[in-house]
């Protein structure tokens, strides 16, 4: 897949043009995928600014770039924050000429936007503590699940965004796996783009309807088709973890809830285990 990428440059003296690369953006309108990554170690940039306090100002602009990427990926809707796109990347590369500058977009061939950033960081960004910026959100989680089911050739059983009803309550899951009736329900959470309070609210809603399903079953509606959900349906939640203490507490609450409702929590790097569980449930 063809992606466009730009380097994020910290330029303490725009008049001289000297800069240090502190990150990169990559994405594709066709793939509907964008990602941003910043260096984990800013020591080189701090030495470059010579204690003038400019880096703090520059990071405000970098945060705006992150919000633009999140808006493009459906993670945020903020007034006045444009959606990142190929045209937007070209625009800001031409207009941002202050202490944060964006290099002219160039093409890269990669399997994903994150893979493109891997190549860019290896070749063009000096960072002894290189790490991914915390931008694994709901769209990336859903894409990973779709890809895993497609590779296992059981994607025909996958139903997206099912409305689940049980005990007089309704909630929406990310996926249902069905072969005449529902055999697996999948929820996704990102601790990297959702705040801990937002996640806690979603965990409580998930646990509530799951209890109703365990008590008496339910049904899902997808594309005007209604399918039964048995009491013993397999329930899985796939999550992207965060580095913060608040995020760890939130996922701890989710683990407790999962134990209560006999569900399984799985990190996004272990999506294949969701597919194995689905295969077992489908009897394939």
How would you characterize the overall build of this protein?
This protein has 284 residues and is of the alpha+beta class. It has 8 helices and 14 strands. The strands form 3 sheets. Strands 1, 2, 3, 4 and 5 form a 5-stranded antiparallel sheet that branches. Strands 6-9-10-13-14 form a 5-stranded mixed sheet, sandwiched between helices. Strands 8-7-11-12 form a 4-stranded antiparallel sheet, with helices on one face. Helix 5 (138-151) crosses helix 8 (271-282). It is elongated. The model has no long low-confidence stretch (mean pLDDT 85).
Q: Percent of residues in helical segments? A: 25-40%
User: What's the CATH topology name of the largest domain?
Assistant: Trna Endonuclease, Chain: A, domain 1
Into which percentage range does the β-strand content fall? 25-35%
Query: How many whole angstroms does the radius of gyration measure?
Result: 22 Å
The overall number of domains is 2
Please identify the structural class as seen in this structure.
Answer: alpha+beta
* Main beta-sheet annotation: 5 strands, antiparallel
Question: Number of DSSP helices?
Answer: 8
CATH architecture grouping of the largest domain? 3-Layer(aba) Sandwich
Whole-number average pLDDT? 85
Determine and state the CATH class of the largest domain. Alpha Beta
Distance between the termini: 32 Å
- Poorly predicted ranges (pLDDT <50, ≥5 residues)? none
Coarse shape:
elongated
Q: What is the number of E strands? A: 14
Order of helices and strands: EEEHHHEEHHEEEEEHEEEHEH
């Amino acid at each position: 897949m063809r992606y466009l990428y730009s380097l994020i440059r910290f330029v303490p003296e725009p008049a001289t043009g000297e800069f240090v690369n502190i990150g990169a953006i990559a994405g594709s309108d066709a793939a509907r995928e964008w990602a941003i990554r910043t260096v984990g170690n800013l020591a080189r940039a701090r030495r470059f600014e010579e204690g003038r306090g400019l880096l703090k100002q520059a990071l405000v602009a970098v945060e705006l770039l992150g919000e633009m990427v999140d808006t493009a990926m459906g993670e945020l809707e903020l007034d006045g924050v444009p959606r990142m796109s190929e045209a937007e990347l070209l625009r800001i590369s031409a207009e941002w000429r202050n202490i944060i500058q964006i290099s002219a977009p160039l093409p890269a061939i990669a399997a994903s936007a994150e893979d493109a950033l891997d190549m860019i960081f290896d070749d063009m960004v000096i960072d002894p503590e290189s790490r991914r910026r915390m931008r694994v959100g709901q769209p990336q989680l859903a894409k990973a699940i779709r890809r895993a089911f497609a590779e296992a050739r059981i994607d025909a059983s996958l139903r997206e965004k099912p409305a689940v009803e049980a005990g007089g309550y309704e909630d929406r899951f990310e996926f249902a796996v069905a072969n005449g009736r529902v055999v697996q329900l999948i929820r996704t959470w990102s601790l990297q783009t959702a705040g801990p309070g937002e996640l806690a609210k979603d965990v409580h809603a998930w646990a509530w309807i799951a209890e109703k399903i365990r008590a008496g079953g339910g049904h899902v509606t997808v594309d005007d088709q209604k399918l039964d959900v048995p009491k013993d349906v397999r329930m899985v939640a796939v999550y992207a973890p965060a580095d913060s203490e608040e995020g760890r507490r939130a996922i701890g609450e989710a683990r407790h809830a999962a134990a209560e409702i006999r569900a399984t929590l799985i990190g996004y790097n272990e999506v294949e285990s969701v597919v194995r569980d689905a295969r077992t449930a489908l009897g394939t």
